[in-house]
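Researcher: Let's try something more involved. This one mixes different molecule types, so please make sure each is placed in the same coordinate frame as the others.
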Amino acid sequence: MDGQDVKPRKDLLDQTWDFFASVRVATVLLFLLAVASIGGTLIEQEGMYASSLPPEEYYPQRYGPVFGMLLLRSGMTHAYSSWWYQTLLFMIAASLVICSMERFVPLWRAVQRPNPAPDKQFVRRLKMGFTFPARGETPYAGLAQALRERRYLVIEQDGRLYADKGRWGRWGPYITHIGLLLILIGAGMRTVPGVYLEQFIWVRDGEIVRVPGSDFYVESLGFEVEYYDTGEPKSYQTHIRVIDAGGNVVKTGTIAMNEPLAHNRVQLYQSSYYGEYGRAQVALVDRQSGAEIAQFALDLIQPQREYAVGDYRVELLAYYPDFTIDETGKPTTQSSRVNNPGLVLQVTPPDAEPFTTWFFPLYPEMEFDETTPVRFATQSVTPVFTSGLQVKKDLGLPVIYVGLFVISVGVFANFYIAHRRYWAFTEDGQVIVGCWTNRNAGSFEREIRQIAHHLDPERYAFASEMEGEER
Amino acid sequence: MIQVSSYLFLGAFVAYVAAAILYVTRLTLRRRDPRYFALADRLGGHGYKAAVAGVVLQGLAIIARWIGSGQVPLANMFEYMSFLGWSIMLFFVILSAWYKLPGLGAFVAPVGVVVIAYASVFPTEVRPLVPVLQSVWLPLHVSLAAMGEGAFAVSFGAALMYLLRVRKEHSARWEEAALEFVFFCFAMLTGFCVLALGFKLGGYSAQLVNMGAGAPVLEYTLPPFIGPVGSQPGDASFLGLPLPLVNVPAWMRGAYAAKNLNTLVLSTLVGAILYGLVRLIAGMPLRELGSRAVGAMNPKLLDEVSYRGIAVGFPLFTLGGLVFAMIWAQKAWGRYWAWDPKETWALITWLFYSGYLHMRIVRGWEGRPAAWVSALGFVIVLFTLVGVNLLVSGLHSYV
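Model: All components are placed in one shared frame. Result:
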């Protein structure tokens, strides 16, 4: 009954546009995103906690049933991929696109197509400015020269003067926003199949392993760790060969910390390693005389089923690479790594009945049966390393790098380049100059004072410097 | 050469303390009586010279350490924090001269002193670089991030002065409380300096068994009232008192969490005593004291200095703290962004200051609200540097 809308109602699209075009909204979104980022640094994130429990069980146990459930439900356990974080990111992206578009054309006109002859009142009302007497035919000559010396672009037109420099400074925010968009696009490209790959491979010294997600193989020519005198690690590196599907060596190189190796857009990073006991040189010794009968090389990674040692035959009945005793008192292996090898061997002497014995290459004197006619003695054990390589492919990476470069250019342009402008017109034998800058007014004022002093030393004797504290 | 460096460093620290004292004295004199103006200005002049001398000496100390150790001196907490202190003083020296605002020294120089003192608490010996740090990105990333944060610190000082200056006009109750709290925090930090340096010079140290993260034995430089996980009362003692009294809760997982918490609690106690003393002597809340000290300053200029600090620091921080950090993370870890707590907090810092910069162009938000954001921004910087190490552990565990 009462008022009807006089203005035509804006439709939803217009309202949305206006919402995202507001700097106020952008500011609030930035603070919201900052606050939203905090949670994930305080709550352990899925896949990062040191437990093998699934999230549904881990979080109630870690944070209590109520709070744990709340964390799970709210997505706080994977904060940075949660719907609310992604929504905020999307809104920020919308805001920076729309804010930039909204202001781009007016700014383009103002900066790149300046009006050299604006309203005289506009020039008079500028906060900074000065006047000097107009002399002769070319009243602006002195001013124009002073400005050109300071690398200004000077335009004289219709009896007016316009000069400016540092236009790039005005584009800083837009450049930064484009860079940020590129980062978001580069990161978002991961969701496209085939763009992103993250794998991990273990390569033992001498081993050839297929690189997942690619069509080539790597062969480890040996992992190497160096130490400082203090015992702290100095470098980790794996010497590798890249072998293509046809079996040809296409590349030889070294992967070290901070020095990944790239092939066909797949990068290999030195990420981890472990050492094992690789080979033992073992002697068969006559227990009574202590005389050595023969030696053999025992491969601890993949022991053979059977060894011929002199006239003796040694058969492998069981192998425990990481020997231990389980709760029921039975021998077992803790892992598949060769940390504490234990072997059950059947030894057949040339002239007697076969017998069974345990052999621990690291502790040869540890024997369960000391009545056997022969025993094993370890001569030497050589370690073998297994290098952990991270396999990475990210086709979004070039976009990210370009984005980072663009952002850097943008922020430096924005804060380190000031757009400075001068307008001048003549009236009643005086040249009236108005000046404007978008930042660093202090040093701009200094420049204006210098120019004013140069053009009219009587009126503009050097004024005292700006004082911070009043007396 | 390392020895030379530590003497230079000590000289720089003495110079900074002298500068801080001179600036505070200057401001105290100025607000009393116009008769003292000449004397006050002379003191301010000396304070500036002391600050410049400190910056030069510390610059030489950094170079000497670099030459002596053969590696960039930005690889551990001592080196990082002292570099941060250096950049705070450097930006102070530049901005205070640029804006002819010596009064800034009374607020920024003490911050520099506290940061340097905090640096000295960490082990100062040169450790060889672990493999992941052997990269050209180490100096690039660390030095630029620290420079940016140094400029933010100067902005913080100026913002605080601005808030004290405009306080009288219409302050909300929370603003009053927050301002007072800032002074309390500063007393706490000063208390920490006194404690840490006192016990360091006295050569106090205690070793406690540590069953938490990090080394099996945690070395304390302050009396360990709070011990690490697994330590026993009587492992250490102070003035005959068997310590620790309690152990750190198990959820504090950082390698130095127990030590840091102990330090925090002791500093708060000493800080509260210091704060109480100053307040008793002054006979008024410290915000009132501060307001009187900045009473004669031009609030617009203070606001501009505060903005300038961020305008200078933001690009440096963007480049050092995010751009170079991401490039290095890609090279070293194979991922430019991993949501590691340290890098996430760097992002939070960046977003926060971005918010500040946008606030400056929104009508009605540019004055006091922005100044509060600038002050809070530096708290976030400090949390990123110190708090993250205390509360959480991550990939970025060296500094």
